[in-house]
Every structure is written in structure tokens, then in C-alpha cells.
Amino acid sequence: MYGVRCPECDSAVVIRNGHDEGQRHRQRYLCQACHARFDDLTGTVLAGHHQPLRVWVLCLYLMGLNLSNRQIAQELGLGTSDVQAMTEHLRQSLVARTPIAKLGNAVEIDEVYIVAGHKGQPAEVAKRGSRDGAAGSLARRDAAHWRRRNRRFSA
């Protein structure tokens, strides 16, 4: 169960077969059963990319700290477009591997906000806001001011 296994046939009969040309620290392997060649990242979300694994892990760590792509680019010494592509790829890969949540039995919901008089009709709320507009709020303010003024002197 432990050790290097072939991603094609899951065989444990694997031998070392040199190093990656671009990244000398990445070991290459050859499966004795199916003769497939692979490296440490084959079959992972990081396979086929030119950045070293260290950069990907640091990028993921900085994403966890809620840094912006620009800040991550500055920290890693990369271009913002490279970091943008890396963060998009990491997010998409994480979402693709996340299992779908299935709710069962009773589900409890807390604190629901519903606009009174417009339940389930957000178009009505939008219409009312645009109909009153700034002129409506000024008219209401002037009417309230007039009532206060007249109430004071009517006694």
C-alpha cells in the first residue's frame, strides 16, 4: 500500500528512471508491469505545470491567508497573470474534488429576512425603490417638517 505505485495499472513494481529535465529534483519512474513512465506529480492537479512544487504549495498557503493575487505575486516573485492562472487552477481543482453535500432528515434555518408586503416578489421592491427615488424622499421630508412646524403653533 505504501511507496510508489503506477498511476496507470496501480502496480507496485516500479523502478526509478532518471529525473525530470526541467526540474532536477523531480524523480521519474518506470512501471515494470505496463511500461508507463510517470513522475511524482502525475495524476495530481499539479501535473504538467512549469512552476516547482514549492511555489504551488506556497501559493496555496498564501491563498489560505486571504492574500490578493497581487500580494501573492509579490511574495513569490511572479507575474500577476501567472499567479492568477495558478489560483484559478487551484480553486477549480479543489471545487472539482469536493464531494457534493447531501442534506437528510430535517434541516433547520435561522434568521430569514423577508420584506413585508413583497414576499417572493423582488421585482416589486425594485420598482418601489425606483418609483420613489430622490424626489419621493424629499417630498416626505418636507411633509414631515411641515407637520412638525404646524403642530407647534396650533396649540
Secondary structure elements and their pairing?
Elements: E1 14-19, E2 27-31, E3 37-39, H1 53-64, H2 69-76, H3 80-97, H4 122-153
Antiparallel strand pairs: 1-2, 2-3
Helix pairs in contact: 1-3, 2-3
Radius of gyration: 31 Å
The beta-strand count equals: 3
Q: Low-confidence segments, ≥5 residues, pLDDT <50? A: none
Q: Estimate the mean pLDDT confidence.
A: 76
Helix content: 40-55%
Task: Kindly name the structural category.
Answer: mainly alpha
Tally of alpha and pi helices: 4
Along the chain, the helix and strand elements come as EEEHHHH
- Biggest sheet statistics: 3 strands, antiparallel
Q: β content, as a range?
A: 5-15%
Strand order of the largest sheet: 1-2-3
Query: How far apart lie the N and C ends?
Result: 93 Å
How would the global form be characterised? elongated
Description:
The chain has 155 residues and is mostly helical. Among the domains are: 1-43, no CATH class; 44-97. It is 45% helix and 9% strand. It has 4 helices and 3 strands, in the order βββαααα. The protein has helices at 53-64, 69-76, 80-97, 122-153; strands at residues 14-19, 27-31, 37-39. A 3-stranded antiparallel sheet has the order 1-2-3, with no helix packed on it. The longest helix is centred in the last third of the chain and has 32 residues, at 122-153. The protein starts with 13 loop residues before the first strand and ends with a helix. 7% of the residues are buried. The mean pLDDT is 76.
